[in-house]
């Protein structure tokens, strides 16, 4: 026991001696250092690494076949992701919604362009995403939910009618589901809670632009009608109390647009837009 104590004391003296030379002025230990028990870890806590700007060989080999989002998720630190993956100041950090419109298949009434961690990898692990909507006259962004995010919607051009139904127990004075409905004018904002059914409609004959930040970089979207009619016919008939016959189910499937569809008949007439058969 005496020999062990002497050895430890000698080690401590040696460590302190080396530390007095190598440790920068003003550096002090912290709780994280005490878990490592060695001089190397103590010194590393006060040393600021200087990046070389060149990806490491290991990082390059690991990147084979992986998307940028996957590489970021596998990076040891955020600094590694920036040094080895997000290396282009413009391509990796500027998202052009106008350019992305070309690749986004529009519905009949407009289109929604989304920036999430797949389309804009710099958002990975940042807890935020964005959608920009270009809604044509009488365009209707069909009822949908965002699986993993709360949305803020800001109208930057024109005006929209917004609707939101939150959940089963949120009811109006008549005991029916409460529909929170508002007209959102230019530079006004509303909120759609995570998982709440909501939609937007352009009641005018002018194009509308909306900007919608999301509280998750992988916010998801589920069009309610499309996915309801994705159920088996027997299940769907049970849901609607057999009001829809089997033959009609397939008909309804074909009539539902995937994203943004034309809405409200009065708007179509006002704007001189022919209703499709």
From TrEMBL:
Composition skew (Polar residues), residue ranges: 35-47
**In which compartments does the protein localize?**
Secreted
Disordered, as annotated region: 25-60
What this protein is called in its record is Putative spherulin-1b protein
Q: Quote the Gene3D superfamilies the UniProt record gives.
A: Jelly Rolls (2.60.120.10)
| Keyword annotations | Manganese, Metal-binding, Secreted, Signal
Please give the GO cellular component terms listed in this UniProt entry. extracellular region
Q: Which family does it belong to?
A: Belongs to the germin family.
Q: Which residues form a coiled coil?
A: none
Signal sequence segment: 1-22
Residues forming the Cupin type-1 domain are: 97-250
Please give the chief subcellular localization of this protein: secreted
InterPro entries cross-referenced by the UniProt entry: Cupin_1, Germin, RmlC-like_jellyroll, RmlC_Cupin_sf
